[in-house]
Design brief:
The protein contains 13 helices and no strands. By secondary structure, it is mainly alpha-helical. It has three domains: about 70 residues; about 110 residues, Type II secretion system (T2SS), domain F (Receptor-associated Protein, Up-down Bundle), CATH 1.20.81.30; about 60 residues. α1 packs across α8 and α4 runs antiparallel to α9. The chain is elongated and about 80 Å long.
Length: about 325
């Protein structure tokens, strides 16, 4: 076969291949072009629709956050009835005032027969105004600590229930029946409020009002936003559970790191009292000049004032809010 025949054969093959390509190209690319056009149309539709939906959802979220922030500001200084409820006590403000009055009278009478009238008056003041309120504050902090410890486990129960298809109300009932106190009683109150017609958003907001905790506020924000704008509730609550656990770990680390400073503060604060007591035991006549002589009384008052300022300053430096 000479070169002329090879060239003719190559040109014939090229012409046949070009004809096949021209005839088959529309059939090969029609499906891809249609898919491409459809994807472009869908993307354009999403671009046209999503801004309105996104703006609406952002507005709902912003309104919910503003409302919750306003309620949080109102709860920074709660009334006495709310503080009693946060402590887990079942009494009214009137009964608390009567109890404070009785405590002040009893303590004042006891000190009146054992000390001077001035000491009895100070004891009555402490018994009526200081001791009952300190007791409520202590019970409130202890109850809040127990709630924070158990609350992430309750949220995990809700997450598993939502993922399995249970309604949110049924998840609350499971928590109310299987969790530890005080989470158990608080979620039982949620169920009772929903039974009388209160919505889920309002009930979880009242949970925050009863407890006064940031953790309960986070939970109320998640539930309120989800009820108004929708979204993946199980994912949001799962993230909240992780955040609460990390907050607890961070709190434990900070407490461990601040124990040295707290120990130093206790030693510095108790040192004048301990030294004064030991000097009084060894030589009472020597130190009694501080409360028998006018100059000693002035020095004693100044020392108590500055010591109180120092103790409050150390307390402010070593205590951390979460």
């Amino acid at each position: 076969m000479d070169a002329k025949q090879i060239a003719i054969f190559a040109l014939a093959a090229l012409a046949a291949g070009g004809g096949v390509y021209v005839l088959a190209y529309p059939w090969l690319t029609d499906d891809r072009a249609e898919k491409r056009q459809k994807s472009i149309f869908d993307a354009g539709a999403r671009i046209a629709i999503n801004p309105r939906e996104t703006a609406l959802r952002r507005g709902q979220v912003a309104d919910s956050l503003k409302e919750l922030e306003k309620r949080q500001k109102n709860l920074r200084n709660p009334p006495l009835s709310v503080r009693i409820e946060q402590a887990g006590l079942r009494m009214t403000a009137t009964k608390f005032y009567l109890f404070s009055l009785v405590t002040g009278l009893v303590l004042g009478l006891v000190l009146l027969f054992t000390a001077s009238p001035y000491v009895a008056l100070a004891g009555a003041f402490v018994g009526a105004l200081g001791l009952p309120r300190w007791t409520i504050g202590y019970m409130k902090k202890r109850r809040q600590a127990l709630f924070i410890k158990e609350f992430p486990n309750a949220i995990d129960i809700i997450v598993r229930g939502v993922k399995s298809g249970l309604p949110l109300g049924d998840c609350f009932r499971i928590v109310a029946s299987e969790s530890q106190e005080p989470v158990k009683s608080e979620f039982r109150s949620l169920i009772e409020m929903q039974a009388v017609g209160v919505t889920i958003g309002e009930s979880v907001d009242r949970l925050y009002q009863r407890l006064g905790l940031s953790e309960a506020n986070f939970f109320a924000i998640v539930i309120t936003i989800q009820s108004k704008s929708g979204g993946n509730l199980s994912e949001a609550l799962g993230n909240l559970s992780n955040v609460l656990r990390e907050r607890a770990k961070m709190k434990g680390k900070i407490q461990a790191m601040s124990m040295e400073a707290k120990s130093s503060a206790w030693i510095i604060g108790s040192l004048p009292v301990v030294v004064g007591s030991l000097v009084y035991i060894v030589s009472p006549d020597y130190i009694s000049l501080l409360w028998t002589e006018p100059a000693g009384k002035i020095m004693m008052g100044c020392a108590v004032l500055w010591m109180t300022c120092g103790v409050l300053t150390m307390k402010k430096m070593i205590n951390f809010d979460f």
